[in-house]
Amino acid sequence: VCGGAGYIGSHTVYQLIEKGEEVIIVDNLETGHIEAVNPKAKFYKVDIRNEEELDKVFKENNISEVIHFAANSLVGESMTNPLKYYNNNVHGTEVLLKVMIANNVKKIVFSSTAATYGEATKMPIVETDRTEPTNA
């Protein structure tokens, strides 16, 4: 689970572990929190843009699929710092896909969590804000 130390990612990890899945978390902790990492998961502090380190994670583990939450999602910030968002969201995903292909991993679920809150009425959005999924 890329971004498994973030809000949605950590909850996904919890559900996967509850179902008996072995979970590997890759998170650079830029916006995630080490306290959110489930101790039953194997954790790597790795940035998805670091191809060499990410490839090591894949080679050390028997990864069959990826759930990808490691993206920046603040719309307002993306307008003032678009290169940060391009670098992480586009380039990071490109590196992840390249490493997946090199390691014959063919399944991915990609999710952006900001849609959970719908149209923001204030910034920044916080975890306790009311949810109104735009894709429901």
Report a brief summary of the structure.
The protein has 136 residues and is an alpha/beta fold.
Description:
It is a single chain. The chain contains 4 helices and 4 strands. With 136 residues, the protein is α/β, with parallel strands linked by helices. The strands form 2 sheets. A two-stranded parallel ribbon has the order 1-2. The chain has a two-stranded parallel sheet with strand order 3-4. The longest helix has 21 residues, at 82-102. Pathway: Carbohydrate metabolism; galactose metabolism. This is UDP-glucose 4-epimerase. Belongs to the NAD(P)-dependent epimerase/dehydratase family.
Features:
136 residues; alpha/beta; Rossmann fold; two-stranded parallel ribbon; 4 helices; 36% helix; globular; NAD(P)-bd_dom_sf; galactose metabolism; UDP-glucose 4-epimerase
